[in-house]
Amino acid sequence: MKKISWMAFAIFCGVISTQSKAQQGLESIIVEKYYVADAADSADAAENGAVYPLRAGMITYRVYADLLPNYSVIQMFGAPGHPLEINTTTAFFNDPNYGVPYYQGTSINNTRKNTQMIDSYLTIGAVANGNPGLMGVLKEEDTDGTIGNLQGLLVNNVVPMTYAITGTEGRDGLMPGVPTALNVLGISGELDILDQTAGDSIVINNGAIAALGGIVGVTAENRVMLGQFTTDGVFSFKLNIQLGTPQVGGSENYVAEDPSATEFTDSTLIYVSESDVIVDTTDTSTVAIHEIMSVNDWTAAAYPNPFNNEVVLLNNSLSMAAMQIEVVDVLGQRVLIDRFYGNQIRIQTSAWSNGVYMVHLKQSGKSRVLRLVKS
């Protein structure tokens, strides 16, 4: 396909926006924590040759544009002065069987296989091809259950997920609709890290992923899915999107930063997940994840992670002050509060239920959080 710049595409289609609008069509960008991988998901991905490991505790994020009625998403773009950025501090998981960097018409049957439902990719609404096809919706809006999983995977059901994505009570965030083939303009290797290549950053400076005619949401809330990203690192983005308006031929451009007189912005176009949680993957001597948190000269770590009956917290702080530790479960209930001195504490966890725990560490006015998983 001949590649052209997003700006040339926009001019050709006559959709350069003006700000003389009675209202703005973007209500917000919504980030949904869609799924938390477990040990069975991890093992299946490894058996199938995942380039970057799917580790238990990895979070799948879904990103949606929440629009006013009769507005549509035309494209996501990066332009000079307005790069489109999607980042993690580790790498994104790519499903080894049917993973794609952007929606390309994967069948519903193949979407149900292995870990395809938590693949990392960009889209404008579409998730799976069929008759009818499937569009991405928030799980709270999903009214038709789940397509399930042919290998019996993706069964985890822990907070922060609102519902499981498989099982009799599952909601997979998929609703019938008419998926649209995407036009990829001016983009070459920028999306490689979503296509079986380990990497941590997407930066698009002169390109777009577009849906000709624009896409509206398939529920009354008019929310259009823009992408799905599975990672064990800090997930962040800066988005620029173009919306179609109810006026024939009308459009609005939204940029993450520094809007011109003909552009809009919104604070939710910039997002950073739990920015104090960083996973160290440099230690290959063990399959366990080492959760690392750094604050200036203070570094704390937890291992193994996931853990079973015991977890060890380490810190290299030179302070002689006591460190306070508080552990809460996914319901916000405290399971441990303690104080310790020195550089190590060994915590017995046999009485804890399986699931995700947040470890809050405080010392000398510094406070940070580690995310741990018991499996």
What is the radius of gyration?
Answer: 22 Å
**H-E order:** HEHEEEHEEEEEEEEEEEEEEEEEEEEE
Q: In percent, how helical is the residue content?
A: under 10%
Total helical elements:
3
Multimerization status: single chain
Q: Which regions contain 5 or more consecutive residues with pLDDT less than 50?
A: 11-22, 275-297
Structural class, by secondary structure, is mainly beta
What does this 3D model show about the protein?
The chain is mostly beta strands and 375 residues long. The chain has two domains: 6-272, no CATH class; 278-374, Immunoglobulin-like, CATH 2.60.40.10. The chain contains three helices and 25 strands. The chain has helices at 6-13, 39-47, 108-111, and strands at 26-36, 59-67, 72-78, 84-88, 121-122, 126-128, 133-136, 174-177, 183-185, 201-204, 207-215, 223-231, 235-238, 241-244, 251-254, 270-272, 278-280, 289-295, 298-305, 310-315, 323-329, 334-340, 344-348, 355-363, 366-374. A five-stranded antiparallel beta sheet has the order 9-11-3-14-15, with helices on one face. Strands 17-18-19-20-23 form a five-stranded antiparallel beta sheet, with no helix packed on it. The protein has a four-stranded antiparallel beta sheet with strand order 1-2-12-5, with no helix packed on it. Strand 17 (278-280) and strand 18 form a beta hairpin. The longest helix has 9 residues, at 39-47. The termini are far apart. Residues 11-22 and 275-297 have low confidence and may be disordered.
